[in-house]
Amino acid sequence: MMSAKLDQIVASAHKNRSERERGYREQALKLYPWICGRCSREFNRTNLTELTVHHRNHNHDDNPGDGSNWELLCVYCHDNEHSRYLDGDGYSSCDSKGAGNATHNPFAALKDLLKS
After folding, report:
1. 44 touches 19 (CB < 8 A)
2. What is the per-residue pLDDT across 45-89, written as a single tens digit (0 to 9) for each?
3. Mean pLDDT estimate for the chain
4. Contact 22, 29 (CB under 8 A)
5. Nearest-angstrom CA–CA distance, 96 and 89
6. d(CA 52, CA 25)
7. Which of 36, 81, 90, 100 sits CB 3.0–4.6 Å from 74 for a disulfide?
């Protein structure tokens, strides 16, 4: 019984997400030329599925009607953008005072080793 309810909740969430994505995707395709904002690859109706909508602030719920939070990116540039964002996110935990900086110096005894 619990599994059926959970399956229903997951299915509903997927449906809502698909409907939301379809809405802003169609809007973005009407607002912007079908060109990747990074690599400038051009798209037409035959390969349009490879053109995605990227949220500049990475918030998929922020969908202003003027498209100011969107840019069209090909699937490759979109994947690269999210990889860069995730990679950079790990470094943001270090504060400006240097907490989290490496303290080990692998070359500390190098001069002595070179002498011998």
Report:
1. no
2. 999 999 999 999 988 889 888 999 999 999 999 999 988 877 766
3. 83
4. no
5. 15
6. 8
7. 36
What's the confidence (pLDDT) of residue 47?
96
| C-alpha count within 13 angstroms, C-beta hemisphere, residue 77 | 18
Please answer whether residues 36 and 52 qualify as being in contact, where contact means their C-beta atoms are separated by less than 8 angstroms: no
Best CA proximity match to 26, nearest among 47, 51, 46: 51
**Stated length of the chain:** 116
Rounded Cα gap, residues 67 and 28, in angstroms: 6
Q: Is 48 exposed, middle or buried (0-12, 13-18, 19+ CB in 10 A)?
A: exposed
Dihedral sign, CA of 73, 30, 12, 59? positive
- In the chain, where the domains are located: 16-89
- d(C-alpha 60, C-alpha 22), whole Å: 12
* 70 class by beta-carbon count within 10 Å (0-12 exposed, 13-18 middle, 19+ buried): buried
Task: Name the residue with tokens 């001069």.
Answer: 111
Q: What are the tokens at 22?
A: 């379809």
